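Input:
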Amino acid sequence: MLLNQFLLLSAILFCIGVYGVIVRRNGVLVLMSIEIILNAVNINLVVFSTYWGIGGQVFALFIISIAAAEVGVGLAIVLLIYRNRRSIDIDELDELKG
Amino acid sequence: MSTLLAALSQLAPDPGYSTPRIDWHGLAPEIVLSAGGALLVLLDAIKLERAKAWMPALANLTLLGTLIPILTLAVEGSTRSLFGGSFVVDPMSLLLKAMFLVVGYVVILLSTNYVAEGDYWESEYYTLLTTSILGMVVMASARDLLMIFVALELLSIPAYMLAAWRKGGRTSNEAGMKYYLMGVFASAILLYGMSLMYGVGRSTRLDVIAENLARPEMQSGVPIVTLAMVFIVVGFAFKVSAVPFHQWAPDTYEGAPTPVTAFLAVASKAAGFVALIQVVFYGFYVRPDIIEPLFFVLAVASMTVGNLIALRQTNVVRMLAYSGIAQAGFMLAPFVVVGDNFDSALSAVVIYLVIYAAMNLGAFAVIIAIARKTRSAEITSLGGLFSYMPGMTVAMTIFLASLTGIPPLGGWYAKFSVWSALLGAETALGVAMAIVMAVNTVIAAYYYLNIAKTMWFDDAPDGDVAPVKVPVGLTGAVGIALVATLVFGVLPGLLTDIAAFGPVSAALGGG
Amino acid sequence: MTGLVALLAQVGTEAQVDTTFDVPANVVFAVTAVFMIVAALRVVTTKNIVHAALWLIIVLGGVGVQYLLLQAEFVAVTQFLVYLGAIVVLILFGVMLTRAPLGVSTDLDNDLKPLGIGAGLVLAVVMGFALIQSFGADQLDFRAYDSALGLDDPQTAAAGRTGAVADGIFGQYLIPFEMISVLLLAALIGAIVLARRD
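Output:
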């Protein structure tokens, strides 16, 4: 197997994730796009760890657990917003502009 | 019996594993801080409502207690390297840790009345604040991509939640959401850069990465090195709100509870800079051909755009947010000469960071004190301040003058050390950067001094000049920031000796 | 750059590439990769939030399969348990609690589509070029990797690789590991405070 087949797959996922973050206006959908980017990162780390030892796999594990914490916090904030405005459209967050 | 023994032998550690040797003294600050944080959680869980009154004091004691091992480490003055060099305790990191702790202490002083009088969850507020400070303290020592990332998340995730802490307030919710989405996206990009950097640098440790990046075969034909550095720097540029990645900052600062804003604008931004110092000065400095132009663009854009927008602001907090973006540009300037004038550039960034923390925190403290009366953050509401709050007016004027860079205040010395690092490098980029910085200092003077003029000479908007009672904590916070701003300006030797890695005992003795 | 394999040889490792496993592994890779890319595109383009979450499951599962191909068994198991088991469920809860419409909604995208497509394509071209230029046709070599970890017996290699991950977490990366425990506690406390009604 080639190193690059994995790296290119991860690059494509990264680009798709960036597109999603730019284009989506629903908070939960933006979060999903960010998860795609994080998975691209993990593929990179794991494939490089076959060259440079176990560090990459450990890094990937840490990213998975921190992503869980991030998603939990994000959904708490999304719920808070939903409760106050009945919408989680981030383009409608416009009270702070000046 | 034999089965039991067999089962026990299964528990024996794998022969490949050796317990890491732990330098308890070197880790003592982090241990004290985490123990204090755990105590806060426990007290909150056991005593519930009755614990509320104790929380700020206990959090403050924790931060002060953490300063003790830092002091003993500083007096000893040696450089300790733990876990094979991924965690380094040296004089610079101790200075930064002490700075984060003092900033945290002042933020808690600012928060005490604000949080108790508003509609907030109190105990959890201090728990999250302490956790975030723990992340910053670790960041000051982290010399490993993985540790830098975990420290960054440890300090950011509680900060996302604190920005949204005024639960019923729609602006606070919005501030938290914007900060969260930008922060998470930024860390995703940062991580992508780190994963590529791990691939070309062959390790997560920055010293090994520097070694590998310096190899001759890595110098050309490996565009991934450039790409990885760009992603990492862009990720941190979001965190330190450098242009063009700054849009979240003014909205978040305006919407978040003001003490949290002070924490974000000072501590969180400083932590972003510390992370940048670690990766650039301990890893990427071997490739100045990539790093220097990158930082030149970021620094010029940040100071120019930040200043020009700050000129138009009518809200003090938003103005401080944009001026903070411009100040971030000044702090990014020394990175432009990392390859040519390494030592002065490093000490210039550290000095600027410490002094910026003192003066900006002071400005926020005064604004919180004033807002107790005016209930507003518009610049016009500051009119006639001298007639009813003369002490605060004088303090605010000193902070604004220091932010402008007027001698003999701390801000002047910070700018001076950046200039001398830039000019000392004797490179075209360095000189160009110094000129841009000089022009921007003049622009910034206009809006800083404009506020001073409003406070001293304009009339109070509603004619109400009854004196205001300011809580002791707030006065103390302003006092600490004031002393730091003045002392660092008058006795800059105190800071230079530490930042230039001189033995701290000499700095403490010799002044 | 002469390629990472040449570098490996330079540091003295035997760069004997094992190709017997290659054909089936490459087939699995290709099939999974196609599924993942299509699913990822659906996540960012679909007009139905629940469908987006379901497509995300395919992306995340595919990533887990790639980990298995890369012989990172422990990371793969964690991927299935934490990502598929916990994070997707959390996201679905988020969708449910915010009463997202279960059918098609038309207002999920903003009008930055040209910017998004442009940014995505430019990034893809730049990164594709940089990756091919930097790593060319470098081969992965699992045998060298295993023997670097001291795992020459293929029977016990899988357990040994997981053991090596554990040694890493509780050895060199002990401080980040401890910090994560503090982080999870703080995230838990804060998220409860923010999400509860009061």
